[in-house]
Design brief:
Layout lengths: L49 H9 L1 H13 L32 E3 L10 E3 H12 L3 E4 L6 H14 L6 H24 L14 H14 L4 E5 L5 H6 L6 H8 L22 E6 L2 E7 L9 H16 L16 E8 H6 L2 H8 L10 E7 L8 H4 L16 E5 L3 H18 L3 E6 L17 H8 L4 H11 L5 H21 L34 H10 L11 H17 L5 H14 L3 E6 L14 E2 L6 E2 L13 E5 L5 H11 L5 E6 L10 H8 L2 H5 L6 E5 L14 H7 L15 E3 L4 H13 L6 E5 L25 E2 L11 E5 L3 H12 L4 E6 L1 E3 L3 H9 L6 E9 L5 H12 L4 E5 L10 H17 L2
Parallel strand pairs: 4-6, 4-7, 7-8, 8-10, 9-10, 11-14, 11-15, 15-16, 16-18, 17-18, 20-21, 20-23, 23-24
Antiparallel strand pairs: 1-2, 3-9, 5-6, 12-13, 17-22, 19-21
Helix pairs in contact: 2-3, 4-13, 5-6, 5-15, 5-16, 6-13, 9-20, 17-18, 17-19, 19-24, 20-21
This protein binds thiamine diphosphate (TPP) and magnesium ion.
Thiamine diphosphate binds next to α10.
């Protein structure tokens, strides 16, 4: 359906790789220029001014005291709004430790960042205590570089003493009062609603109010935010202009999507907003991401989505000249709950990828809504660490703890965090210490489990009321101002509630913008011409292994990869799996699509078959031949060798997949088994993101699978689990509109068409591709060039052309590499009566094609399903009802018997089983 433009062979550009090894920082490739999607960072140079160093040397005791506050001050800070007493002075801060007396005279310059040049120790201690031990405290003395540490100390010491203008103070008071009014309104109008209100955490409005202004002033164009339930509706309807009528409609039990959309929707606490905000006259696009109930799993998705937007706008190493930096125009913000942040392992993985090439996004700003409870669990039982943010230290990220009772300090904390992210483009945390006024939801009674803390909570005024009172006393607001703000907002909500109708939303907010032209798959079966002209195939094939003349290539790679591929391309036959992949990816790049392949060691490939990156032996410089096919090539291949993570990395790739339909995102598991570390991403996004939220994704998962004696954990990608997760029907033919596709191809050309189909068609579906291991180098698993040419496409079923249909009395159905074992056995026994039919697409289940195939065998009486997986695994329970219901024939099982482990670890037992699963289907009566 997609016509390839006339392609012109162009001379490949002359490339010069530097022969010198340049390694800037731990994460860099050994390359000066980087590769597509990664540019080594310039090392920043920094020197503490000599004058400061001299002062510190001369007044070393005083300097030690200041450093002690910077390091330990947070431990005695007043950051808990529920705490009744101020902690006593820490031993680490006792003056006697430093040989100093209160009245000693000292020079501050070069040691403390105050307006004052000199003073006495007493003044210094007061300043240090106000800065490091009051309603804001900071952890930063472990930052990676001296520059960061110096900068942080200076910024904290200067920012916390900055006055706030009255306008800002008024605005945050009003936003907090509105948030409280909103909660009160919902509590009265929707008594039984679990709204996860913002009460107790209203000062998050101060964070966001300030943050949005800072984003606009720094010319940021996109804010990508993810958040859980707490205070989400307040933020949406408050600062984010989410129309309350949409909320009220949802509260009446109606869909958030227009009528006629095939979408099952989601709950109220998962509503989102994606809108242009006008902030101080500047337009900033804001996206709050879809999230499931599984706390924190949205975080890697938001990071991937952020990077996807960066790719679309050409930021940093995605740009032409690479002059911009990650996050120049796009910023990622993650809002966490205190209990969930500590408990969910995905957060460790997210931080671990945050600075890795091909995953970096220029630093996330993390806001912790730290209400000091998770459901009924207090921090003492909810974590082993002092703070809920302690994971930050795993990447040496600074943390600013702030007492939510002091919204002005929240504003200052926001400023410090923002400035740090903008300057260093690294993660930073704001830990907003607050409380939760009601139970986990408003229908829960917290006194059942947490009586003491809730007595304190119930006896204290709300944060908005307390702050409004403060501003009234300071003559910044009047009582009338306060009353008007609350009454006007409540009246507005009342009016909207009264006027709102049951009319469905008209505006389509899905498949727009960059997704315009992409459709929802229809309930029919389409075939896509994914073939490619021979001349282009040959061109791409050659280019896929062409390296600069001076690249010092590893001899074995030259022989078994480069030369062997060139020969195959020349001869046009015996094309293997990795060549098919290179042809698919290369032809898509040629058409202008981007391709991103991510996973552990994907550049070389777990089985050393891919060599998408060729490594110079003298310099270790990486070279990606497919990115240099033609001059001005726009479609690029990003090879993202990932850290050893499945959950965060797969979530990240899903995030990339929903940001543009023009990048083919491929995630490869090292072995299929290990996808299960990312099960949450599969269960909550990949399988049903479209059903719940109308989010299309073309994410492609490659899962190496197959029984070859590798033992319980390197044999199975748990195909059965994916099959169970599809919405394929047992007694009706499937269409394109299944929730995801599952294919188990047996030939390289089939793999080629599957990959190309992901981009060429006009809708997007996740593809689970059961990948091979031994087929990568199997002499029979090869394709000729004719199977890649125009008018060819993916075959959902491959019939048997080795038998005469009239001779056949038994048909064996099979999927995947087991086919070759059956075929070999049939040949060795010269059996002419058994046909072997391969089911290449499992979902959608190709009933029509299968019927056509088996109709050929008029005398066949026995139909056998043959698999190498145990009976309780593999595709058996999926294929059986579909075949029997829709083909009207009985299907017999032949494979390993039910097992607990996917495969045995004992070599001899494996051999015995492998023999049986091949022989038995032929013997079965
Ligand atoms: C992965 C996961 N486990 C359990 C739950 C059930 N659950 C929902 S909210 C919640 C408490 C979360 O506490 P916290 O992260 O502190 O956020 P808060 O509700 O206090 O704002 C729990 C356990 C969930 N949604 N997701
Ligand atoms: Mg909490």
């Amino acid at each position: 359906m997609y016509a390839l433009g006339k392609f012109v062979l162009k001379k490949s550009p002359r490339l010069r790789l530097s022969s010198s090894v340049s390694c800037t920082g731990v994460n860099s490739y050994h390359s000066e220029n980087g590769v597509y999607g990664y540019k080594p960072r310039q090392q920043r140079r920094f020197q503490v001014p000599k004058e400061y160093l001299d002062e510190r040397a001369k007044q070393s005791n005083f300097y030690r005291l200041v450093e002690a506050y910077r390091t330990h001050g947070h431990k005695q800070a007043n950051i808990d709004p529920l705490s009744m007493s101020k902690p006593s002075l820490l031993p680490e801060l006792q003056l006697s430790n430093f040989g100093l007396n209160l009245k000693d005279k000292v020079r501050f310059r070069g040691i403390l960042f105050t307006q004052q040049d000199e003073g006495i120790i007493e003044e210094a201690v007061r300043f240090l205590s106000d800065t490091y031990c009051d309603t804001v405290s900071t952890e930063f003395n472990y930052l990676e570089t001296e520059e960061e540490r110096e900068w942080f100390a200076e910024t904290v010491e200067r920012t916390l003493t900055e006055p706030l203008d009255d306008e800002t103070r008024k605005m945050i008071a009003v936003e907090m009062l509105k948030s409280q009014a909103f909660d009160n309104f919902l509590a009265i109008k929707f008594v039984s609603l679990k709204r996860y209100g913002g009460e107790g955490a209203e000062s998050m409005m101060a964070f966001f109010h300030e943050f949005f202004k800072l984003c606009a002033s720094d010319d940021l164009k996109h804010i990508i935010l993810c958040a859980a339930h707490r205070g989400r509706l307040n933020l949406l309807t408050g600062l984010l202009k989410f129309p309350p009528e949409k909320l009220f409609r949802k509260l009446r039990g109606l869909s958030e999507f227009p009528d006629m959309t095939r979408c099952t929707g989601d709950v109220v606490s998962h509503l989102i907003s994606s809108t242009d905000l006008d902030i101080d006259g500047k337009s900033v696009h804001f996206t709050m991401l879809r999230n499931p109930s599984h706390l924190e799993i949205v975080n890697p998705v938001s990071m991937g989505k952020t990077r996807g937007v960066m790719q679309t706008i050409g930021e940093d190493a995605y740009g032409q000249d690479g002059s911009s930096r990650w996050s120049d125009r796009v910023i990622n913000v993650q809002v966490h709950g205190d209990a969930a942040y500590t408990g969910q392992g995905v957060n460790q993985e997210c931080l671990a990828i945050s600075k890795v090439p091909h995953f970096e996004i220029g630093g996330t700003i993390h806001l912790m809504i730290n209400n000091q409870v998770g459901f009924t669990t207090p921090p003492s039982k909810g974590r082993s660490s002092r703070y809920c943010t302690d994971l930050a230290k795993s990447i040496s990220a600074p943390v600013i703890h702030v007492n939510g009772d002091n919204p002005e300090m929240v504003v200052r904390a926001t400023r410090i965090a923002f400035k740090y992210q903008r300057l260093f483009r690294k993660d930073v945390f704001v830990d907003l210490n607050c409380f939760r006024r009601w139970g986990h939801n408003e229908l829960d009674d917290p006194l059942m489990t947490n009586p003491l803390i809730y007595k304190i909570i119930h006896n204290r005024p709300s944060i908005p009321d307390r702050y409004a009172e403060e501003l009234i006393n300071a003559n910044i607001l009047t009582r009338e101002n306060v009353r008007n703000s609350v009454e006007n907002y409540t009246a507005w909500l009342n009016r909207i509630l009264k006027e709102s109708t049951e009319e469905a939303p008209r505006q389509r907010d899905y498949l727009t913008g960059r997704w315009t032209g992409i459709k929802q798959a229809e309930a029919n079966v389409t075939q896509w011409n994914t073939g490619v002209e021979l001349s282009l195939l040959k061109f791409v094939g050659k280019k896929s292994v062409e390296v600069p003349a001076d690249l010092d290539i590893y001899p074995q790679v030259l022989k078994s990869h480069v030369q062997s591929r060139l020969k195959k391309i020349e001869n046009g036959n015996a094309l293997d799996w990795s060549t098919a992949e290179a042809l698919a990816i290369g032809s898509l790049l040629y058409q202008g699509y981007n391709v991103r392949i991510s996973g552990q060691d994907v550049g070389r490939g777990t089985f050393a078959h891919r060599h998408a990156i060729i490594v110079d032996q003298s310099t270790e410089a990486p070279f990606i031949p497919l990115n240099f096919m033609i001059n001005d090539q726009t479609g690029k291949l990003e090879v993202a060798n990932s850290i050893l993570s499945e959950e965060a990395v797969l979530g990240f790739e899903y995030g990339m997949s929903i940001s543009s339909p023009y990048t083919l995102p491929i995630w490869e598991a090292q072995f299929g088994d290990f996808f299960n570390g990312a099960q949450i991403v599969i269960d909550t996004y990949i399988t049903n993101g479209e059903a719940k939220w109308m989010l299309s994704s073309g994410l492609t998962m490659l899962l190496p699978h197959g029984y070859d004696g590798a033992g319980p954990e390197h044999s199975s990608c748990r195909l059965e689990r994916f099959l169970q997760l599809t919405n394929s029907k047992e007694n009706e033919a499937d269409s394109d509109d299944v929730n995801m596709e599952i294919a188990n191809p047996t030939e390289p050309a089939q793999y080629f068409h599957l990959l190309r189909k992901q981009m060429v068609r006009d809708y997007r579906k996740p593809l689970i591709l059961i990948g091979p291991k031994i087929l990568l180098r199997h002499s029979q698993a090869v394709s000729s060039m004719t199977h890649f040419e125009p008018q060819t496409s993916f075959k959902t079923v491959i019939g048997d052309d080795k038998v005469k249909s009239d001779d056949v009395n038994k048909v064996i159905l099979v999927s995947g590499k087991h086919y070759y074992a059956l075929k070999d056995y049939r040949e060795s026994t010269e059996n002419k009566n058994v046909a072997i039919v391969r089911i290449e697409s499992l979902c959608p289940f190709p009933i029509q094609e299968l019927l056509e195939e088996i109709e050929k065998y008029k005398h066949a009486r026995i139909f056998v399903w043959s698999q190498e997986e145990p009976r309780n695994m593999g595709a058996w329970s999926f294929v059986k009802p579909r075949f029997e219901n829709l083909c009207g024939r009985q299907l017999k099982y032949c494979g390993r018997e039910t097992m607990a482990a996917p495969a045995v670890g004992d070599g001899q037992m494996h051999q015995q089983e492998a023999k049986e699963v091949v022989v038995k289907p032929f013997a079965m009566k």
